[in-house]
Specification:
The protein is an alpha/beta fold and 228 residues long. The protein contains nine helices and nine strands. It is 36% helix and 22% strand. The protein is globular.
Length: 228
């Protein structure tokens, strides 16, 4: 399996198979939403679109990143998500990095969204699919986010060697700029950051499913898929 690691600006064409990685925090939040029973996640291109979808569909929830925005139910915090009832619900998600990366690769035949908490299951799906080539899209910092690159490289290693250890890759994420920014936000009292966000983002294989995105009713929709 040939592997390419690129940022969103490096996507000159639509890859056949893509793994879009956002560790801190979009696709850790998405995995936790599915782990707590959410039915599906609809990706929105803008905050206004996300709020419009929520308004037109009673019972839907809306998540965003950055400072808390009125009308949204969660500011992209996996720890804060644990106190939110998402069972059986549809979630609309709009983030700067993760959902933007997924939408940029939306034409892929197989499109996976990943973080450390679903790394093993993501690798299992790739092993089963046996693609000739996979493009890993590192969404943070225009493709330079160390936590996303570390997770992407870990998944690629797992495809080749299912017994590969996670710790060297997790350590890189622990010392990344993304982790440092969340720590600084916590120090500054940002409302959308929880003390347990970084530890939750650094857990590996918390969930036994991968997350696969595809077009449904004109939207890019993410759903959990069992690894086995």
């Amino acid at each position: 399996m040939r592997t390419t690691f690129t940022g969103v600006p490096g996507l000159s064409s639509t890859p056949e198979v893509a793994v879009v990685v956002d560790v801190m925090r979009a696709f850790t939040v998405a995995a936790w939403a599915f782990g707590r029973g959410a039915e599906r996640i609809v990706f929105a291109e803008t905050l206004d679109e996300a709020l419009d979808l929520k308004a037109r569909h009673p019972g839907w929830l809306a998540f965003q990143d950055g400072p808390v925005v009125p009308g949204f139910d969660l500011a992209n915090s996996p720890a804060q998500l644990r106190s939110l009832d998402v069972g059986g619900r549809t979630v609309v998600q709009k983030t700067t990095a993760g959902t933007t990366g997924a939408l940029a690769a939306a034409g892929a035949r197989l499109l996976l969204c990943a973080s450390f908490v679903v790394a093993g299951a993501t690798a299992a799906v790739l092993r089963r699919a046996r693609p000739a080539a996979v493009t890993f899209v590192v969404t943070g910092e225009d493709g330079r986010a160390e936590e996303d690159l570390a997770c992407a490289e870990y998944i690629a290693r797992l495809v080749a060697d299912g017994s590969a250890g996670a710790e060297p890759f997790v350590e890189r994420a622990r010392n990344s700029g993304g982790a440092a920014r969340l720590a600084e936000g916590l120090r500054l009292g940002w409302e959308g950051v929880h003390p347990e966000d970084v530890p939750l983002c650094l857990e590996t294989d918390t969930f036994p499913f991968a997350m696969v995105a595809g077009r449904e009713d004109g939207h890019l929709v993410l759903r959990p898929v069992a690894a086995g």
